[in-house]
Amino acid sequence: MRVMFDEVRNNNLKSLLLVSLFILIVGLLGAVIGLVYDSLAFGISVAVIFSLIYSMIGFYSGQDMILGMTGAREVTKKEFPYLFHTTEGLAVAASIPTPKAYVIDDSALNAFATGRDPEHASITVTTGLLKTMDRQELEGVIAHEMSHVKNYDIRFMMLTVVLVGIVTLLSDFLLRSFLWGRGRSREKGNQVTIILIVLGFVLAILTPIIGHLIKLAISRKREFMADAGGAILTRYPPGLASALKKIAKDPDPLVDRANRATAHLFISTPFRDNKGLITNLFSTHPPIQERIKRLEEM
Questions:
Q1: 43 CB contacts (<8 Å, ≥6 apart)?
Q2: Calpha distance 51→166 (Å, rounded)
Q3: CA distance 176 to 22
């Protein structure tokens, strides 16, 4: 148990460092934008103000936006009584407020949690998962998502979506500035200008990719931790392991309303399985067989 809490603390520290790297990238982009417009203060100010506004909107409205994007609908205890009872019981075990329950009308076997903290959280499952899982398997899946809520993974997951969006938008603005704005109006032959243009292009192209990879790294690490945390909540690792086996064999894993922005939230990738080096590099989840193996060894 102590090892589990040490891992959670270490994981939170690593995630904080990764988010700090995002802030550094935003600052660098702002500095380059400032140099392009002959005012370092202007560029950094624009980047900081834009990032703060975008982050606040995402922080307080991100959950509603994610639920809307995925087509999730809030359900009642009368409609899905066991889902409610399972969620309430595991929330008590985790010593957190009971998250709201949502479902996605989709045959794929999947689930996710979102929100900014345990007091403002929700757990969503597909109707396909509810129809396919037995009680112990459903408990394992809900416990996995409850672990994300308890460990504030949902906050980091939502923030990384926001931060990747900020980096991408600032990079796009910088690239357009060089192509259509001040970047082409400077004197030709100026070596400093050439260096700035090259640096700007490199940052504009690479930072969205780096930001996306950081988001995926956070997601992959936290999936292993949520599996372990879920097993501790239910005290029955085989339940979640069995659920993951069924999910791995799902003939149609595609969640119709899922997209690249929300994929890392799900318990398993909501897209069809495409094997390959590039696909694995940009995968939002660790290999499901590795997750099953770790659970079976607990």
A1: 30, 31, 32, 33, 34, 35, 36, 37
A2: 6
A3: 21
Distance CA 42, CA 212 (A): 27
Q: Which of 145, 187, 223, 297 is an active site residue?
A: 145
Pairwise CA distance, residues 137 & 243, whole Å:
5
* pLDDT score recorded for residue 188: 46
Q: Exposed/middle/buried for 236, CB within 10 Å: 0-12, 13-18, 19+?
A: middle
Distance CA(263)–CA(110), nearest Å, equals: 11
Q: Is the dihedral of CA 160, 102, 127, 267 positive or negative?
A: positive
Residue 147 in tokens:
């672990």
Strands, E, within the chain: which ranges?
73-74, 100-104, 111-117, 120-126
Backbone angles phi, psi at 97, to 5 degrees: -60, 150
Instruction: Summarize pLDDT for 237-262 with one digit per residue, the tens.
Output: 999 999 999 999 998 888 888 877 77
pTM for the full predicted model:
0.78
Which residues 6+ apart lie within 8 Å of 31 measured at CB?
40, 43, 44
* Alpha carbon distance 18, 41 (integer Å): 25
145 annotated active-site:
yes
